[in-house]
Fold:
Amino acid sequence: PAGGMGLEPLFQAWSYFRRRKFRECADLCSQLLERPPGEQELDSEYSVFQAAWSLKTRALTEMVYVDEIDMDQEGIAEMILDENAIAQVARPGTSLKLPGTSQGGGPSPAVRPVTQSGRPITGFVRPSTQSGRPSTMEQAIRTPRTALTARPITSASGGYVRLGTASMLTNPDGPFINLSRLNLAKYAQKPKLAKALFEYIFHHENDVKNALDLAALATEHAQFKDWWWKVQIGKCYYRLGLYREAEKQFKSALKQQDMVDTILYLAKVYLRLDQPVTALNLFKQGLDRFPGEVTLICGIARIYEEMNNISSAAEYYKDVLKQDNTHVESIACIGSNHFYSDQPEIALRFYRRLLQMGVYNCQLFNNLGLCCFYAQQYDMTLSSFERALFLAENEEETADVWYNLGHVAVGIGDLNLAYQCFKLTLVNNNDYAEAYNNLAVLEMRKGHIEQARALLQTASSLAPHLYEPHFNFAILSEKVGDLQRSYTAAQKSEEAFPGHVDTQQLLKLLKEHFAML
Structure:
């Protein structure tokens, strides 16, 4: 201790950093940097000034750090104006844009709901499962939402929003490091400072171009022998949308140093280029070198799930659990897979396992309620849903719970309760297409034809990827004698779910009608 005053300030700051108290660490470093620089000779060793500067950049970076591997949201611009399309009409099973009909024997859309891109709903929310690739610009603007907001996803949402705001927090007089006045070439020659500075520019300031310049100079200074810099250049290229250049950098880095992270980055590039089979091969080669690596097995499972090959995905998720039996995503996905395969009792065991692990949220209790209902454990059903309503954080979650309660009410035959539940769903979320569809069915039972038609039209315009509203509208129109509308709706239903027998029978009947005319 210096003169009985407690810890030496730089060591104290380092201690804060180790304990993840980044705000206190940054403040202490600021005080150190404001002192008159005593011995600020720039020799090969760190001076106190340089050490404090480096530590502060790291603390500020950690405060806003988002792991690039999981941070992947494809914006509208990227989806619609994608110049990297490899094949416009890809072979079945080789593209994420056209997930083939269920190759892995998974349940059909009649049992398991699908997202707008035609994939079955997964057991775990990830950016890629939220949006899927829309077919038209109108659909793109209307449907893909981030998990909670009503804004369409743009690539600047989520983790990249902090531009400008975070840097102002650090220092009331302006940003901590003025990037425009930095001599990047000077910093590139000090590898220890350069790495901290790069992460600060990339994550905190979100200035990809300057980060790329620094990385290029530093890798040159390291005579292209430092794999870390190659990975960072790859990350910059990926953010800038130069996927082929990013691929070269990651491959080069892998040759020098085999790292799991680099494999994950490279797979991200292939998935963005819509080459899931290449990504799968990459993961499998990675598993030869890193046997039992959870992130790689999980990556394979995710790709199989997105390609609609549910049984292979489930196998790989089970492999993940052999290595790490507290992996939430795997347990959730296997649970939802069992639920939709008509095994609610087994699904219940998986969700109970999540509860024992300390996951305590609306979605889990909602799923527990459904599993209990279908497993005929009626005593637990309503209490689970009550807990789910209590834990719901926003209106979308509340709407989901009320919608499921409506299903339970239909199941026990209380149609008035079901009607109220679906109405409450729409109060909480006005764009809930499934609730409009189910309300229309209840209205049809009461004989209110016009209301039912209006509700079905709303449902089919909100969610053109669902086959139920189209099919119900076709049946209703056929009953009223409006054969033309019925035929159009039946065709849309067939497009959404080609294997639906009732739709095909209706189309056959209508064609016979038209032949008689």
User: Anything to note?
Assistant: The radius of gyration is 28 Å. Confidence is low (pLDDT under 50) at residues 1-5, 39-44, 144-170. Residues 431-516 form a domain with the Serine Threonine Protein Phosphatase 5, Tetratricopeptide repeat fold (CATH 1.25.40.10). The longest helix spans residues 395-412.
